[in-house]
Design goal:
It is a single chain. This protein has 16 helices and 13 strands. By secondary structure, it is α/β, with parallel strands linked by helices. The chain folds into two domains: 2-167 and 336-349, 3-Layer(aba) Sandwich (Rossmann fold), CATH 3.40.50; 179-325, Glycogen Phosphorylase B (Rossmann fold), CATH 3.40.50. Helix 4 (96-108) runs parallel beside helix 5 and helix 10 crosses helix 15 (313-325). The radius of gyration is 19 Å and the shape is globular.
């Protein structure tokens, strides 16, 4: 097979690492980086640490509005896809790069395979929700991480070409767990179970000063240091709003995958609006408080390891207190056995 893989954002780099490794054992892959995440701390370091093949093409399309990004990506993708004449276009997740790859493939008549299909937050205001719903509608192969995701598709009438394979991000985590770095802990004088890890990057939180203030006020009231790797969008929001950061909050630059694994696995608790980090925290057995009103990873909530707190200061503090006092004993395997990539390649071959 000849595959064109389209990536552009941090979570996609993580997923592409184990997938490319399995795919390239017997098949040909042409890797396109859209440039959606272009900062070295959000892009280059992941290729280096995870051994991802260097992109065959980097479109360099970043830092634009959603409309501008998707339209420019689609126009830029046309020529290389037509030149490669692939059997499949492979897309991941729910970013603008995902949507652009799906639409371009469909319009060019190339079958699209969507990895991480079927996720739903049921929040129509999230750009990611639009991206994933449209991608699922026009993909020929839909690779679901869980039975819940497959059930979501079935409710929408999508049953053909649906495979429950496990989670490729779980593949990456299980393969790299022993490589987790402690350097960032040592550099910031952090100790096992004696700090909280936080990430805030969704536009719905960073671009709303009232919501961002609620989150930061909650962090300031927590009983342990809060380590906050600052996504570029958060950095801009802090500069523009001048919102205060509590003395217990340690703002650090974005970190690579292995440093983030080390920070997550050693944290007492995670606070995040990231979908991927909710799932990684669960796999690592770390309680999570999600700074959103909904999640696409509903299994983590049902298992009791994740609590939805929104952006209200008092709710966040209460959720943290509850999570610290009521950590579940049961920890079911939700996201597979680390062989999702092998199942995906076998399905594409068939």
């Amino acid at each position: 097979m000849r595959i064109v893989t389209i990536v552009g954002a941090r979570p996609q780099f993580i997923k592409a690492a184990p997938m490319s490794r399995v795919l390239r054992r017997a098949h040909e892959e042409y890797l396109i980086h859209t440039g959606q995440h272009y900062d070295a701390g959000m892009s280059d370091v992941f290729f280096e640490e995870l051994g991802i093949p260097q992109p065959d093409l980097n479109l360099g399309i970043g830092g634009l509005s959603n409309l501008e990004q998707v339209s420019r990506m689609m126009l830029a993708l046309r020529e290389p896809i037509e030149a490669q004449r692939p059997d499949w276009i492979l897309i991941y997740g729910d970013t603008n790069s995902t949507l652009a790859g799906a639409l371009t493939g469909r319009l060019l008549g190339v079958p699209v395979a969507h990895i991480e299909a079927g996720l739903r937050s049921y929040n129509p205001l999230m750009p990611e929700e639009l991206n994933r719903v449209v991608a699922d509608r026009i993909s020929a192969a839909l690779f679901c991480p869980t039975e819940t995701a497959a059930a979501n598709l079935a409710r929408e009438g999508i049953t053909d070409g649906v495979y429950v394979v496990g989670d490729v991000m779980a593949d990456a985590l299980l393969q790299n767990r022993e490589r987790a770095s402690t350097a960032v802990l040592e550099a910031n004088d952090l100790h096992l179970g004696q700090y909280f890890l936080a990430t805030v990057h969704r536009a719905g939180n960073t671009d709303d000063p009232e919501k961002l203030k609620g989150i930061l006020d909650a962090f300031a009231r927590l009983p342990l240091p809060v380590v906050l790797p600052a996504h570029p969008r958060l950095q801009r929001a802090l500069e523009q709003t001048g919102l205060a950061i509590g003395p217990n909050v340690r703002l650090i630059p974005p970190v690579g995958y292995l440093d983030m694994l080390g920070l997550t696995s050693s944290a007492r608790l995670v606070l995040t609006d990231s979908g991927g980090l909710q799932k990684e925290a669960y796999i690592l057995g770390v309680p999570c408080v999600t700074l959103r009103e909904e999640t696409e990873w509903v299994e983590t909530v049902e298992a009791g390891w994740n609590r939805l707190a929104g952006t209200d200061c008092a709710r966040i503090v209460a959720a943290v207190e509850a999570a610290l006092s009521e950590t579940p004993q049961a920890h079911p395997e939700l996201y597979g056995d680390g062989r999702a990539c092998e199942r995906i390649v076998a399905a594409l071959e068939s």
